[in-house]
Amino acid sequence: MNAKDKFQNDLKQKLRERYEKGLMRTLVHRGDKIDFSSNDYFGLSSSPAYLFLDKNNRSGATGSRSISGNMNEAEEAEYIIAEYHNQESALIFNSGYAANVGLFSCIASKGETYISDEYIHASIIDGMRLSHANRLKFKHNDLLDLEHKLRQTIGRKFVAVESIYSMDGDAAPLIEIAALCNEYDALLIVDEAHATGVFGERGEGLVCQFELESEVLACVYTYGKAAGIHGAAVVGSNILRDHLINNARSFVFSTALPPHTYEQIKTAYTLFPALDREFLFDLILHFRNTASNLKSLVFLDSFSPIQGIIIGDNFKAKALANYLSDKGFFIRAILSPTVPVGRERLRICLHTFNTKSQIDDLLNEIKSFLS
Ligand SMILES: Cc1ncc(COP(=O)(O)O)c(C=O)c1O
User: Fold this and answer.
1) Burial 179-205 (b: 16+ CB within 10 A, else e)
2) Is residue 222 lining ligand 1, measured as CB closer than 6 Å?
3) Which class is 28-45+276-370 in CATH?
4) Does the model's pTM come out above 0.85?
5) Atom of ligand 1 at shortest distance to CA of 222?
6) pLDDT tens digits, 289-300
C-alpha cells in the first residue's frame, strides 16, 4: 500500500469511529422543507434589496485589503458600522470566524490571560489558541466563577463572552460582567453574532442597548446571520483597528470580500431599523408558551430566536431530527462534543417567515415522537 492509500485508510478508520459514535457530519440540502434551522431570522438572505451589480462591474477584490483589495465600498461600510454601534471605527473581515480568529490571535500576548465563558464559540477558542496567552474558562454565565477567575489572574486579562449564545440562545449578563471587568481591570470583548439585527431598538445589539459601548474593548458583529449575507466587523477604537490591520493574520493574509458584499453590508444597515423584531419576539413567545404545556420535555431557557429541546443523547437527537425531516421540517440536531455530553439537543431557530401554526405542528410532531 502506498503512502496515500495508507493515509486514506487511516482517515477512513477515524471517520468510521465518528460514525459509530453517531457523530458523523454530513452535508444535507434543505430543499423545500420548513426552515427551523437557519440563522436567517428575518429571511433577508433572499431580500431583493441585496440584488444588484457592483457599480464598476467588479466581482473580485483582487487581493488582500493591505495589498490591492482595499476599496471605497469597504471603508464606507466600516464608517456606517462604527457609527451604528457607537464606536470610533470598524474593520470588516471575511466572516465571523475570520474576525474572531484574527482578533483573539493578536490582542493578548505571552503572560497575559484570556478568560472566556465555557460555551464560547469555536472561532474564539481557535483565535485564543493561536495567541501565546494563558487561557481560563468560567462556568457559563456564572458571575461568581468569573470573579474567582479574575481574582486569581495576575497581569493583563481579557474577558470574552457572546451577548447571545449560539447553541443555547440565552444572553450573557452583560451589565454585571462589564462591572466585574471594571472592578478587576479586565478588557471585555463581546461577540454579538446572534444579536446583530435582532436586539436593540434598531438591531444594534445588546452592548448598545445596555449603553455599554465605553465598557468594551471590542464587539464583533456578523452579517451571515440576521443580515442574511456574509462577512463580519470588529468594532472598537481607531488604535485597535490599526493594530488589527497590522497583526490580525486572517485579515492580512486573505483576499478581501468582493465589492458587492460591502454594498450588501451597507444595505443591511438600511434594513436593520425596520426589521419586524416585534413579530419575531411574538413568535418566540408563542413557541415558549406552547412549549411550556409539554411538561415532560426540557426546553432551553432562551428568549432569543434560538430555541431548543434537550434530548441528552446523540442518536436520539439525530433520530428526532430525521423524523422531523420526514414530516417536512428542516431542523438539525446538535451533538456532543459540540455541546456538553448530556446536553445534546434539537436546535430550533425561529424566523419571521415561520407561522404560529407551523410552530404548533412542529411541537406536536416532537411530542408524538418523544411520547
Ligand atoms: C457566536 C458566533 N460567533 C461567530 C460565528 C462565526 O460567524 P460566521 O458564520 O460569519 O463565520 C458564529 C457562527 O456560527 C457564531 O455563532
Assistant:
1) ebbeebebbbbbbbbbbbbbbbebbbb
2) yes
3) alpha beta
4) yes
5) 10
6) 999 988 888 999
Q: What is the pLDDT of residues 249-280, one digit of tens each?
A: 999 999 999 999 999 999 999 999 999 999 99
- Ligand 1 pocket test, candidate residues 39, 93, 121, 219, most atoms within 8 A of CB: 121
Strand pairing report for 232-236 and 89-93: antiparallel
> Residue 164: which residues within 8 A CB-CB, separation 6 or more?
170, 171, 172, 192, 193, 194, 195, 198, 199, 206, 304, 306
Domain layout of the chain by residue ranges: 28-45+276-370, 58-273
Which pLDDT belongs to residue 17? 95
Nearest CA, atom 8, ligand 1? 96
Known catalytic residues are: 39, 121, 162, 166, 191, 194, 225
Test site for ligand 1: of 95, 125, 222, most ligand atoms within 8 A of the Cβ = 222
CATH topology of domain 58-273: Aspartate Aminotransferase; domain 2 (3.40.640)
